[in-house]
Specification:
Number of strands: 6
Helix content: 10-25%
Largest sheet: 2 strands, antiparallel
Order of helices and strands: HHEEEEHEEH
Oligomer: single chain
Strand content: 15-25%
Radius of gyration: 21 Å
Structural class: alpha+beta
């Protein structure tokens, strides 16, 4: 049995963040085929071990690329430069309970540590528009 939320029914084609990140990291979209990334210890074992990048077999230009190599390399540099933001430990008792009136997504708690330590709820989709 699969659990389907209201948002999945409203937005069936919305991509998850991890899906987008995996596409941005995948060299297959450059038109390459990469083989020998993993191998098993024996033909009886189904457990995969990751091979070193130097052992990979990369065939370039096998199919039409979706993204050009310059743009792909720029994205890789930007993704490596992105710094992690450390979250302030806080308890959000309204987590998954407060939703946006317009898009029905869960509102996120925003904390600004200034003199008054201001807390507010915001919709990430509405802010980005």
């Amino acid at each position: 049995m699969m659990y389907i939320t209201d948002n999945v029914e409203k937005y069936p084609y919305e991509w998850a963040t991890q899906s987008i990140l995996s596409v941005l990291r995948n060299e297959v979209y450059l038109g390459h085929i990469i083989c020998n990334r993993h191998q098993t210890s024996s033909f009886k074992s189904k457990k995969l071990k990751v091979n070193l990048e130097s052992e990979w077999i990369i065939n370039k230009g096998i199919h039409e690329p979706i993204i050009d190599e310059i743009t792909f390399n720029e994205i890789q540099i930007l993704m490596k430069q992105k710094k992690k933001t450390y979250r302030v430990p806080h308890e959000n008792i309204f987590k998954d309970r407060i939703r946006c009136n317009e898009c029905c997504k869960t509102l996120s708690l925003s904390i600004r540590p200034d003199k008054s330590y201001h807390k507010s709820f915001a919709c990430l989709l509405i802010e980005n528009m």
